[in-house]
Amino acid sequence: MTPTTTRACWWHSPPFIWGAACTRPRPRPAHSTVAEAPLRREVALWHPDGRRVWRTAAGDWPAVSLDAGQPLEAALRATFGEIWPLHDGGHLFGQAGLIHAQALNDGLWSGEGAWSEVQPGPIPHARPWQRPGWPAQVNALADGLLKTVGLTRQGEVEWHSAHDLTATNTVPTEAGRAWLKVCETGQEAALSAHLGACHPGLLPPVLAADPARCALLTLDGGELLDSAADPQAWTQALERLAGFQRSADAAALAGLGAPGFPLTEMAECVDALLGETAALHTWGLAAETLTTLQDARPRIRAAFSDLHGHGLPNLPAHGDAHPRNALYSPARGAVWFDWSEAASAAHPFMDAGWFLAFALHPSREGLPVRQAGPDLPQRLVTAYLRALGAPDAAPLLWQALPLALLHRAAVYDRTFRTWTGTVPGVRPNYTPYYLRLAAREVARLT
Q1: How many domains does the chain divide into?
Q2: Keywords, A to Z (predicted)?
Q3: What average pLDDT does the segment 9-37 reach?
Q4: How far apart are CA 17 and CA 4, in angstroms?
Q5: Farthest CA pair distance, the chain
């Protein structure tokens, strides 16, 4: 799966989309002309006060019916009116757990029943934005952040997307639309505040950041880069990325919690991961993919060694530098957002390699910029390497594409191998996603 393409979206999950915004496709027999029966899911519908839930006359939960491919939040609103999605009960992953949503007014629909104080059991490991009462809390949070910069909210905060790692909302202000992101930790808020102060043209304008409340408020930064047809928007994004890599204060980033991923250390981590056959099986990696990568281990080790031998130092990194984490507008040009995975030190090609692997993948041939001509890859690489001060390193950058993907797989394996979320048996599926991409790219290694 790929990230959402909604305008100026602060939330992304390249391989694996979370939350109530999405539906999991149901299998359909080939050439079937039989309409699928709607899915029926029970809903814990919370009163706007966040203390009561709706029960039917029989004391049961109300239900929502979903047509194939229908977004869950759309089905909830069609059934219950204005609601705030809290948790999808595992619907995205084919589970039929209890869905949680909060009504935004108590004059909803004509279903028989009443508000009850008999509540459901709590969601295991629920984040603040997955609990009843969050709509009022997030409006108050937005008000407090806006007050620090002399702005006021011009309407209600609106839900945009949410999953176990983060929640993203839009906030109307007199300065234009703002984006409020709340995370599990305050690290992204702290890093974004620092970068906004030290590199003001690098990211959308930061209105306010509150690491203690894990909250970040920024102005809209434009359209997602992958909707931009002009190659200059793309080369500018890479040039600004290289400028950040060269000029950012690594010690300051480390002091704000950004980890370091030195090239030699990551080469060892990648090799160790590829040798852990049992662990890779737990990620559901196909046998063919596993064989391809394990057979390529000597070439992968050699490629990491070649990259190290070239002499480019470890530098600050965005950490997830793909085109849907960049925005473009004529006023500001290309800017980068989602600094949640920023690193204080990594080889710069780990960022650039992921950008190129994402942008040039065959599945993205329909991107407007891909129609610019056959020289687009060369233009992107040349612009980046010139800005980085390494114009002679093009062959190594192309060879680094699979290394960048393997780097990401190893980082995510370290983060999510034993991770526990709110949906039983489900963890972010980033590691096998990047391993599959890497298996396709290892042919670059000679």
Answers
A1: 2
A2: Transferase
A3: 40
A4: 8
A5: 73
Of 114, 129, 144, the position where a domain reaches its end is: 129
Q: pLDDT digits over 364-419, tens only?
A: 999 999 999 999 999 999 999 999 999 999 999 999 999 999 999 999 999 999 99
How far, in Å, CA of 103 to CA of 46, rounded?
Answer: 6
231 and 118 in a common domain = no
Is there a contact between 402 and 300 (Cβ–Cβ < 8 Å)?
yes
Residue span of the structural domain in which 331 resides: 223-444
143 within some domain: no
| Interatomic CA distance for residues 45 and 95, integer angstroms | 18
Using alpha carbons, select from 262, 236, 263, 249 the residue that is nearest to residue 387: 236
Cα 212 versus chain centre, distance = 22
Q: Which long-range contacts (CB under 8 A, 24 or more apart) does 2-8 make?
A: 2/324, 2/363, 3/324, 4/161, 5/224, 5/226, 5/227, 5/324, 6/160, 6/224, 7/223, 7/224, 8/177, 8/179, 8/204, 8/220, 8/221, 8/222, 8/223, 8/224, 8/327
Q: Locate 254 and state its tokens.
A: 């480390």
pLDDT of residue 3: 32
Q: Nearest-CA neighbor of 284 among 425, 89, 96?
A: 425
**Same domain, yes or no, for 234 and 357?**
yes
Measured distance CA(181)–CA(55) in Å, rounded: 32
Residue at 432 is within a domain: yes
Q: Please check whether residue 76 lies inside any domain of the structure.
A: yes
Q: Going by C-beta distance under 8 Å and a sequence separation of 6 or more, which residues neighbour residue 394?
A: 381, 382, 385
DSSP alpha helix (H) spans, 31-83: 72-80
- Structural tokens at position 242: 């290289």
CATH code: domain of residue 404: 3.90.1200.10
SS3 label, residue 24:
coil
